[in-house]
Amino acid sequence: xxxxxxxxxxxxxxxxxxxxxxxxxxxxxxxxxxxxxxxxxxxxxxxxxxxxxxxxxxxxxxxxxxxxxxxxxxxxxxxxxxxxxxxxxxxxxxxxxxxxxxxxxxxxxxxxxxxxxxxxxxxxxxxxxxxxxxxxxxxxxxxxxxxxxxxxxxxxxxxxxxxxxxxxxxxxxxxxxxxxxxxxxxxxxxxxxxxxxx
Length: 198
Description:
The chain is of the alpha+beta class and 198 residues long. It has one domain (3-192). The chain has helices spanning 3-22, 33-54, 58-64, 72-79, 117-130, and strands at residues 68-69, 83-91, 95-104, 106-112, 137-148, 152-162, 171-177, 187-192. A hairpin with an 8-residue loop joins β6 and β7 (171-177). The longest helix has 22 residues, at 33-54. It starts with a helix and ends in a 6-residue tail after the last strand.
């Protein structure tokens, strides 16, 4: 078993129980289909991307959730040279959902065409800060704005999850939200060993 595999299992033992505890406790805010579907999409993101930690098959989890793979030619521009695959799903009010799974670098990213940004941000912050445990430090590494397509800006919050053990990689968990209705992608959720790329 490689060092990264051992790290995944160690981190998973700390993080996954916390995910199960925090997510069901999130406050319901049934303001409409977009809010409900945003929360549901975040739940799918967590279920799929948790496999990154355990070394499980994220693609299989995605297929179970209704995602289908896109042809390699269409996937290549979204992979930016990384090894992985791109999957898509259709979801009511949130419209198109794109899932990007890469093994080199190790990352799982979900892009929502439409998102209730206010709800998603609050859920994300509560989730990320709620997974801190002895032996697992969660630090808000970035909270600000980043360039968005179309010369606009989007809000981004990134947390770093670390065991503090020398030689073990940290994981990043990030939320990027653009409330502009004209934005092609309003929300990006990322989890992996690399910082998110919008």
